[in-house]
Recover the amino acids of this structure.
């Protein structure tokens, strides 16, 4: 009897609780991804259309139902085309498989070297792009540049971004305490509402932040400002303490190592 009673308790109480907790966690993580993209607008539009359809169904508005049934297939195709970058980013995030993995702490002493170099580059108004990898692999970006696999140091970053250097115009890709590659090309953002004053570096940083979970540090060649791009957003003209605070929060903790970058 005890065995059957125990299984009854698990089936009637424990399983429903686990079901609710798991569903709540998945909804929460999905919301975290959605709020970082324009897909929130997609969800709002879908909810409005769903409410209109339910109202038409219960009120038996046959003409409206007929029109909605005609429009739905075209709307689905149109949404898939319009929101293609957002949908790709959502599924890429899901594919990182870090939702249920305990994150390990990564050595962060390399941030001091980057911050020191960024400060000196900003003072000299030497434009630069520095990419910090996180969970999504950047092998396609790394292949556009020159592989280095060199120990990270302020002097090396300064050498790469010195005027006249053949790698000056590209981006540096950093993973933990290594400069994986330099002179890399980044995708350009196509956001229509991006500030016109932003140059190619800022647009490239934002473009990569839209497609991956990388964090990109940008030093402006025009005015020496330091900015950070991540999660499809660009934080413009930050002070060095602000850059340090954001980087430590985003880069100190990482999930899966970028094995393909170290191969």
């Amino acid at each position: 009897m005890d065995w059957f009673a125990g299984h009854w308790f698990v089936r009637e109480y424990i399983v429903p609780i686990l079901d609710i907790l798991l569903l709540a966690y998945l909804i929460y993580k999905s919301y975290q991804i959605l709020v970082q993209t324009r897909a929130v607008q997609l969800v709002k539009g879908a909810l409005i259309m769903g409410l209109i359809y339910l109202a038409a169904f219960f009120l038996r508005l046959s003409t409206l139902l007929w029109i909605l049934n005609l429009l739905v297939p075209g709307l689905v195709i149109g949404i898939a085309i319009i929101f293609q970058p957002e949908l790709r980013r959502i599924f890429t995030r899901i594919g990182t498989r870090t939702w249920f993995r305990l994150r390990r702490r990564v050595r962060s002493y390399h941030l001091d070297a980057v911050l020191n170099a960024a400060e000196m580059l900003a003072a000299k108004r030497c434009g630069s792009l520095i990419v910090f990898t996180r969970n999504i692999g950047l092998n396609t970006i790394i292949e556009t540049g020159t592989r280095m696999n060199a120990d990270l140091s302020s002097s090396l970053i300064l050498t790469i971004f010195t005027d006249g250097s053949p790698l000056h115009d590209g981006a540096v890709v950093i993973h933990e305490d290594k400069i994986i590659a330099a002179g890399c090309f980044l995708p350009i953002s196509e956001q229509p509402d991006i500030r016109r004053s932003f140059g190619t570096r800022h647009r490239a940083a934002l473009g990569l932040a839209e497609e991956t979970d990388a964090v990109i540090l940008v030093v402006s060649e025009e005015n020496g400002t330091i900015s950070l791009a991540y999660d499809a957003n660009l934080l413009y003209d930050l002070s060095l303490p602000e850059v340090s605070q954001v980087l430590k929060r985003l880069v100190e903790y990482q999930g899966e190592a970028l094995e393909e970058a170290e191969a």
Summary: Residues 2-95 form one domain. Residues 100-107, 254-263 have pLDDT under 50 and may be disordered.
